[in-house]
Amino acid sequence: MLRSSRIITQKVTNRLSSRYLSTNSSLNFAIIGSGPSAFYTAKYLLDSSPECKLDIYERLPFPYGLVRYGVAPDHQEVKSVTSTFEQVLDHKDRVNFYGNVTIHDKEEENSSVNSLDFKELYEAYDGVVLAYGATSDHKLNLDKEDELEGILSARTFVNWYNGHPHYPELPFAFENVKNVVIVGQGNVAIDCARVLIKNEENLVSNSDISLPALQILKKDYPNLENITIIGRRGHGQASFTIKELRELTRLPEGQVLIPLDDIQKGLTEATKQEIQSSRPKKRITDLMETVAAVPLDESKKKFITIRFLLTPHELRPSESNPKRIGSLVVKKNQLVGLPNEQKAVETDEIEELPCDLLLTSIGYKSESISSLIPFHPRRSIVNNSEGRVLNEANEPVPALYVSGWLKRGPSGIIGTNINDAKETCSSILEDIRSGSLNSNKQDNLEKFKQKNASVFAHSLSYQDIQKLNQYELQKGEEFEPKRIRQKILSSEEMVKLAKEL
Ligand code: NAP
């Protein structure tokens, strides 16, 4: 990891010495998206090419993407990365932020005040970087998944509790939720379990969870008893990391349980080899075994049970409310395959888990914003090589680049975007040097901005964001008890406040 980081950094530094970069002409780039991958790409472009000017477009009024709306509200230390992103926006002579602007294939009849046509935008800039992440999710593909109340993707749940303007409400009542099942064993699943089990006092103080979410979750908090996090493979293949699991085991609000039997069933020869050859796996296995050895503490009122080798098989309605989910039937699995390639194979043995709320946490999914962007439908990413977008013949699409989850799929922590962005920048700088990007389209850009003047007039600038940020901090300060920030929850209100403040 470190070695590849050094290689990429060296590549970027080499580009700096190129002759092209010492000329005076400017190159205008559009970056679509304003999450971590967009800002790291912007940072390295600014650092390595003094000629680059950047316009960052965001469909929501407020920037920072997953950092604001994905990272758990009680993980404020992770959210502090926004100070790095603010340094990018502080380059006021080289960077514009345009919030509240959607980019898509714009039909004439579908010309909303805050949208731009992708093709027009692409033709107006010297280069375009796609960095808008993953705004959808994978499905279980079970009968009644879209019919029964009480089933939600973890992404939607996370967006809702983080105050995302597109998810203002839970689509069903949270009332009387006693048993929650979370499918999938990544860190998003752990985040959801932690937010659910933390009591009001611990969640209100050191978090920026949206106020309605806090009120709804904690009003019915006494009813919540069991959260079961299920994985289709074994403990050796769980995706969550030790820091997040350890944090869960230390919460005073409940007890984490791991059945020893589940661990033993997953201990195939291949799993033993996987654990032996990976120090992080060895450490997290030791922690899971320690947890599994602790007896049930009857004094606890709430439990998080982590179960392995179970695949969702059937969604059963509740007997008292047939519109709502009542249980999840799972099939028990066996692990088959070579080390690091083991797959879950279903057996005929089933188990029924009581379930009033089912969260599917089986991975985020990117979507295409334009039919002109070559999209890999199976992998749900933009076809690319080292950040250069490729057409169907695997040839680079001129001046079109991609970064982040849209480039590599929905994996990795925020820091993973550093090397990812460096790689994309390295490709861009190589193309600048080779002359393939040497097409100054200043006139096109001016015409594009004139033609869409009303969209730009309705957009939010960095200055607006700074005002909204101050407003949210002030509202948090005034709240009783004091909070880190009180988020503004609707796009309309943000736009309105940006004008008034
Ligand atoms: P993830 O880590 O990729 O986990 C997805 C889980 O879903 C895996 O357990 C996977 O099992 C399971 N899964 C996938 N398809 C399934 C199916 N059809 N049926 C049943 N299970 C299925 O994804 P994530 O939790 O959404 O997290 C995304 C990224 O963000 C990760 O890299 C994560 O580490 C990062 N993140 C980090 C933090 C943090 O650092 N605190 C917090 C949140 C997210 P298999 O392994 O069997 O496929």
Q: Can you characterise this structure?
A:
Helices cover 38% and strands 21% of the residues. The protein contains 20 helices and 22 strands. The protein has a seven-stranded mixed β-sheet. Mean pLDDT is 93; it is low at 1-24. NADP nicotinamide-adenine-dinucleotide phosphate binds at residues 138, 183-189, 191, 231-233, 237, 239, 244, 361-364, 410-413.
**Global morphology:** globular
How many separate helices? 20
State the major sheet. 7 strands, mixed
Helix content: 25-40%
Radius of gyration: 24 Å
Oligomer: single chain
Uncertain residue ranges: 1-24
Please report the total strand number as a whole number: 22
* End-to-end Cα distance: 45 Å
Task: Describe this protein with a few key phrases.
501 residues; seven-stranded mixed β-sheet; 20 helices; 22 strands; globular; binds NADP nicotinamide-adenine-dinucleotide phosphate
Write the layout of secondary structure elements.
Blueprint: H1 2-16, E1 27-32, H2 36-48, E2 52-58, H3 65-69, H4 76-79, H5 82-89, E3 95-99, E4 102-104, E5 115-117, H6 118-124, E6 127-130, E7 136-137, E8 151-153, H7 154-161, E9 179-183, H8 187-197, H9 200-205, H10 211-219, E10 226-230, H11 242-249, E11 255-257, H12 260-266, H13 269-276, H14 279-293, E12 303-307, E13 310-317, E14 325-336, E15 343-354, E16 357-360, E17 364-365, E18 375-376, E19 381-382, E20 384-385, E21 388-390, E22 396-402, H15 405-408, H16 416-434, H17 442-451, H18 453-458, H19 462-478, H20 491-500
Parallel strand pairs: 1-2, 1-6, 2-3, 4-5, 6-22, 8-16, 9-10, 9-16, 10-12, 11-12
Antiparallel strand pairs: 7-17, 13-14, 14-15, 18-19, 20-21, 21-22
Bound molecules: NADP nicotinamide-adenine-dinucleotide phosphate (NAP).
